[in-house]
TrEMBL record:
Source organism, top-level taxon: Bacteria
UniProt family annotation: Belongs to the UPF0339 family. Duplicated subfamily.
Naturally occurring in which organism (per UniProt): Pseudomonas putida
UniProt-listed Gene3D superfamilies: YegP-like
Protein name per the record: DUF1508 domain-containing protein
Residues in DUF1508 domain copies: 12-58
Short name of any one Pfam family annotated for the protein: DUF1508
Species lineage: Bacteria, Pseudomonadati, Pseudomonadota, Gammaproteobacteria, Pseudomonadales
Entries under InterPro entries matching the protein: DUF1508 (IPR010879), YegP-like_sf (IPR036913)
């Protein structure tokens, strides 16, 4: 197991860049929804998640809202 959660950047079978977010228990908990031709674009996507993720609100559908009220 890793001591910290981390982003893992790699090339997929099509030779495009992708990222995974891996929890401390080594479980993958998020993956990129798109691939990137350029490494810098993949790194930019990871940067946006790191920057905007900590303050992003949690929202959901009507069932979610009903259970959270």
């Amino acid at each position: 197991m890793a001591e910290v959660a981390y982003f893992y950047i790699y090339k997929d079978a099509a030779k495009e860049w992708r990222w995974k977010f891996v929890a401390k228990n080594s479980k993958i908990i998020a993956v990129s929804s798109e691939s990137y031709h350029n490494l810098v674009d993949c790194e930019h996507a990871v940067g946006l998640l790191k920057e905007q993720g900590p303050t992003a609100p949690v929202i959901g559908d009507d069932d979610f809202d009903r259970l959270r009220k």
